Structure to design on (350 residues):
C-alpha cells in the first residue's frame, strides 16, 4: 500500500469525524491530518477513541485564513485533500448567508489555491476530493431522481454556496488539470450529529418532553443515509473513483418528514419505556422554512454499479443505533446543547 499524506478538513464535525476514524483505523500507513476550526459544530469529543493514534494529528485552524493554510500545505506537503469543512445548516444560511460564502466558497478557494501552488504542474498521484450535497440540484416534484447529470439549481444560501464550491473544484480540474472528485450525498443521520438537524433535534426534544417543530405541513421528502455508510462510500470513491468525475450517494430511502417523525416517535417511546403514542403528542406544526425544497431523492446507481457500494444498514436499524447512541451519551448531548445552542434555539423556534 502506498503511503499518503491526507488532509481531512472539518474532521471534528459530524460526517468528518466518521471519515477521520475510518481512515485512521484502516490505513495505518497514511498520515492523517484533521484540520478543523472547531466552530459550534466541531467537537473533539467525537474523536477521543483515536486521538492518540500514531498516524493521526489534529490541527485547529480556519480554512479562510490564507497565510495559515499556505503554511500548513508547505509543512505537510499533502498529496490529497478530503474537504468536508463547511457551514452546513440550511436554517442558519437563511439568517446569515455571508458566513456560508466565506467558509464554503472562499475557504474552498483558498484550499484549491494552496493545493495547486504546492503541486503546480505535477499532479501525479494527487487528489482533491470535495464532499458535497444533493441540495445543489434544487428541488424535485413528486417524481424523478437526481442523477449526476442533473443541472444545478440551488435554492437556499447553503446550497448556492455548495454549488459554487463544486463549480470551482471542477473549474480547477478543467483549467489547471487538478485531479479531483466530487460526491453529492443525501441527508445523513447517525451518532455525533449536532442537534440542530431534524433527527437529533427531535430525539433531544423527545427526551426533554419539548415540542417537535415540524415545518409547514410536514409533506417534504428527504432521502436518508446512515453516516457510517457515507464514510464507507467516501473511502471507496477516494481510492477507486474515476478522477474528474462526480458520484451521487444516497440511501435509496425516501421519507416524508411527517412519516419519519412518527416512526422516530414510535422508536423513542419503546427506547424510553414511555406509553405508546406519548412522543407523537409533541408534534407541533410551525411556520415553514423559506424556500423549502419539496423533495430530494438520489439515484445512486452509478456508485453502486461502478464501485459496488450500497448502504449496509436499513433505516430502521440505523435509526435504532442512532437513538441508542444519543440515549447512552447524555453527557455529549448536554455539553453541546448548553451555552450558545440555547440562544440559537430561541431565535429559530420562538
Ligand atoms: P458539520 O456542520 O457537522 O461539521 C462541519 C465541520 O466543519 C465542523 O467540525 C466545523 O468546526 C468545521 N468548520 C466549519 N467552518 C470551518 C472553517 N472555516 N475552517 C475549518 N473548519 C471549519 O457538517 P456535516 O454535516 O458533518 O457536513 C460535512 C460536509 O458534508 C459539509 O461539506 C456538508 O456540506 C456535506 N454534506 C452534509 C450532509 C448532511 O446531511 N449533514 C449531506 C451531504 C453533504
Ligand atoms: O440533503 C443533504 C443536506 O441535508 C445536507 O447538505 C445539509 O448539510 C443537511 O443539513 C441536510 O439539509 P436539510 O435541510 O434537508 O436537513 P434538516 O435536518 O435541516 O431538515 C430535514 C427536513 O426536516 C427538511 O425538510 C426541513 C425539516 N425540518 C427541519 C428542522 C431542523 C423540520 O420540519 N423542522 C425542523 O426543526
Amino acid at each position: 500500500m502506498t503511503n499518503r499524506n491526507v488532509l481531512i478538513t472539518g474532521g471534528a464535525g459530524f460526517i468528518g469525524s466518521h471519515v477521520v476514524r475510518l481512515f485512521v483505523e484502516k490505513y495505518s500507513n497514511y498520515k492523517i491530518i484533521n484540520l478543523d476550526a472547531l466552530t459550534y459544530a466541531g467537537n473533539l469529543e467525537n474523536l477521543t477513541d483515536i486521538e492518540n493514534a500514531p498516524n493521526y494529528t489534529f490541527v485547529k485552524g480556519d480554512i479562510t485564513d490564507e497565510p495559515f493554510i499556505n503554511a500548513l500545505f508547505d509543512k505537510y506537503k499533502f498529496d490529497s485533500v478530503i474537504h468536508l469543512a463547511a457551514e452546513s445548516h440550511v436554517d442558519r444560511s437563511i439568517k446569515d448567508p455571508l458566513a456560508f460564502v466565506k467558509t464554503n466558497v472562499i475557504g474552498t478557494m483558498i484550499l484549491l489555491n494552496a493545493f495547486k501552488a504546492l503541486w503546480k504542474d505535477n499532479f501525479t498521484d494527487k487528489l482533491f476530493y470535495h464532499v458535497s450535497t444533493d441540495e445543489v440540484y434544487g428541488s424535485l416534484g413528486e417524481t424523478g431522481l437526481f442523477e449526476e447529470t442533473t443541472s444545478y439549481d440551488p435554492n437556499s444560501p447553503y446550497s448556492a454556496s455548495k454549488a459554487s464550491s463544486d463549480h470551482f473544484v471542477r473549474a480547477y480540474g478543467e483549467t489547471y488539470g487538478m485531479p479531483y472528485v466530487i460526491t453529492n450525498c443525501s441527508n445523513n443521520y447517525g451518532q455525533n450529529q449536532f442537534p440542530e438537524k431534524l433527527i437529533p433535534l427531535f430525539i433531544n426534544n423527545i427526551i426533554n418532553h419539548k415540542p417537535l417543530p415540524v415545518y409547514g405541513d410536514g409533506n417534504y421528502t428527504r432521502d436518508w443515509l446512515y453516516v457510517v455508510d457515507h464514510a464507507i462510500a467516501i473511502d471507496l470513491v477516494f481510492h477507486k473513483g474515476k478522477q474528474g468525475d462526480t458520484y451521487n450517494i444516497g440511501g435509496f430511502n425516501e421519507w416524508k418528514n411527517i412519516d419519519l417523525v412518527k416512526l422516530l416517535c414510535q422508536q423513542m417511546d419503546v427506547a424510553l419505556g414511555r406509553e405508546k403514542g406519548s412522543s407523537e403528542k409533541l408534534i407541533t406544526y410551525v411556520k415553514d422554512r423559506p424556500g423549502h425544497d419539496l423533495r430530494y431523492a438520489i439515484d445512486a446507481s452509478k456508485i453502486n454499479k461502478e464501485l459496488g457500494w450500497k448502504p449496509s444498514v436499513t433505516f430502521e436499524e440505523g435509526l435504532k443505533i442512532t437513538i441508542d447512541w444519543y440515549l447512552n451519551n447524555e453527557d455529549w448531548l448536554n455539553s453541546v446543547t448548553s451555552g450558545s445552542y440555547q440562544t440559537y434555539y430561541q431565535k429559530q423556534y420562538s
About this structure: The mean pLDDT is 97. Residues 97-119 form the longest helix (23 residues).
